[in-house]
Amino acid sequence: MAQPAAVATPPPKAPRRRTATPRRLPYLLIAPAGLLMLGFIAYPVISVFYYSLQNYNVTKPWRNGFAGLDNFRRIFTGDDQFWSTLGFSAQWVFTQVSLQLVLGLALALIVNQTFLGRGISRAMVFSPWAVSGVLTSTIWILLYNSSTGFSRYLADAGIGEYGTSVLSDTGTVFWAATVTELWRGVPFFAILILADLQSVSKELYEAASVDGAGRLRQFFHITLPHLRDAIILATLLRGVWEFNNVDLLYTLTGGGPAGETTTLPLYVANTGIEGHDFGYASALTTVAFVILLFCSIVYLRLSKFGGDHK
Amino acid sequence: MTAVLTEKNGAARPSVHPGGPQPPSRRRTGRERAYDDVPRWQIYLPLGLYLLFTLIPFYWMLLFALRPAGSTALVPWPMTGEHFSKVWNERSFAVFFQNSMIVGVATLIATTLVALAGGYALARFDFKIKGAFMLALLCSQFIPGALMLVPLFEIFRNLQMINSLWSVVIAETVFQLPLSIILISGFIKNVPVSLEEAAWVDGCSRFTAFRAVVLPLLRPGLIAVGSFAFVHSWNHFLFALMFLSEQDKQTIPVGLNTLIGADSVDLGALAAGGVIAAVPVVIVFAFIQKWLVTGFSAGAVKG
């Protein structure tokens, strides 16, 4: 008679798989995301690859058809605009990412300190992160405006000349656009780096300062190595983002003056949308995509992302 | 629910505030200073300069929006609402605002739900195509949305969704998904699986266990992901510009762009439109900014 008691005592068997279809469950869970991405990312990408081998122009339908590698030949041999916009893209991405990194790192280190008013300062310096490219353009157009903008008040104070519009002068437009983009780009870096700073152990700093390491050495020997992966990832994501994103330059300068601030994606958009030359735009897209992927892989390799350096 | 949040925040970064006020007895002789004993001016001077850089543009926009047309005063006084009523009524910002709200909220809901399912699968299961799925998520980060405009336009035209706000909702959700899934699966991995198992033992189904045990702990992460989705779709410009050509379907960024491109730019109206565009994101931002850093440190970087 002891048997039923013995059967009753063992803890209730853990119901390992309560769901009826454990094997199918993960697939069901990723299905919505997977289908959306197949339909609205994978399919458009494939169609871009496909059209890059076609002549496809709604305004010249008689020429539509298979083109082979003609579009690519045209890009690399006969298209000066491709090279100049690619050059500008490279300059833009490099300037933005390096300046945003330096300023964002400095900003994160500052607001990571303990000081009076830290919470509100953080909120204020991070706030441009939430502002759109179009709104950023709006704000800075008001600032740069030659008759009522900031420069007018500077001119009142004897700095600069009246009536200068930094956005229509080829000599100043690059830096005007750069400052504008920095305004909303730096907070992104600062937020990411600050997030990673939270996980540096305080003991390391205390040990280092007991050993007599100054703040500068602590920064280079503790903080920077710790932030390494976060910085590599943030610069890569941001670089790709700065390369691809067009709404700020589109609304601020429209790629002008005289094509001076046209990035490769902006050129592609103009070719495809305004020029209706979708075949050629697709080929440009393919080339841009390959360049981006290649640069990213090289960057990750060179920076030894995720290596055991800690 | 606030209790859970505070607790989680507190646990996530115990090192920030080393236990309230510092004991004054800490030795600080010569170079043996603790790391955060930085001279005050080295904090406040650069911070102050940066704050000026951040805030002057905002102030400038407010100034233009509030002072009467033609005024050059540096203080918005006498104050006027003329620009706001003009933009809101004559330039249809009332309609744009409503459209942007619909797009933003719908994108938020869709992104969070779909990413929650996908993130849970990635965090808790091993399955055959997991690696391929992760790779696809990462690769999609390199695809410029701007360059997908034309094929997407063709898709939506075939679906007869041009000039429907849902085309923009779908496009925004799709491009928001990869990062959201990666973030959420990072958050879910941080919740010990044993908590869920304990709930199963108590007789909960997987779904109930998830809702009762995991979901409350995900709140900071979900707030981060959801607000990302909202802010992103509120701000995004190109999809709305391309897919919505009828004026009563357009969104705020498109309306702003129209104001910028007007033949003679009405700066007061432009500034007022900018303020209207900024208000919702500023409110969302003020609400979430405390969790933003925590959310990132839990999910993104270590994801």
TrEMBL record, chain B:
<feature type="transmembrane region" description="Helical">
    <location>
        <begin position="129"/>
        <end position="153"/>
    </location>
</feature>
<feature type="transmembrane region" description="Helical">
    <location>
        <begin position="101"/>
        <end position="123"/>
    </location>
</feature>
<protein>
    <submittedName>
        <fullName>ABC transporter, permease protein 2 (Cluster 1, maltose/g3p/polyamine/iron)</fullName>
    </submittedName>
</protein>
<keyword id="KW-1133">Transmembrane helix</keyword>
<keyword id="KW-0813">Transport</keyword>
<keyword id="KW-0472">Membrane</keyword>
<comment type="similarity">
    <text>Belongs to the binding-protein-dependent transport system permease family.</text>
</comment>
<keyword id="KW-0812">Transmembrane</keyword>
<feature type="transmembrane region" description="Helical">
    <location>
        <begin position="265"/>
        <end position="288"/>
    </location>
</feature>
<feature type="domain" description="ABC transmembrane type-1">
    <location>
        <begin position="97"/>
        <end position="288"/>
    </location>
</feature>
<dbReference type="InterPro" id="IPR000515">
    <property type="entry name" value="MetI-like"/>
</dbReference>
<dbReference type="Pfam" id="PF00528">
    <property type="entry name" value="BPD_transp_1"/>
</dbReference>
<feature type="transmembrane region" description="Helical">
    <location>
        <begin position="165"/>
        <end position="188"/>
    </location>
</feature>
<feature type="transmembrane region" description="Helical">
    <location>
        <begin position="43"/>
        <end position="66"/>
    </location>
</feature>
<keyword id="KW-1003">Cell membrane</keyword>
<dbReference type="InterPro" id="IPR035906">
    <property type="entry name" value="MetI-like_sf"/>
</dbReference>
<dbReference type="InterPro" id="IPR050901">
    <property type="entry name" value="BP-dep_ABC_trans_perm"/>
</dbReference>
<feature type="region of interest" description="Disordered">
    <location>
        <begin position="1"/>
        <end position="33"/>
    </location>
</feature>
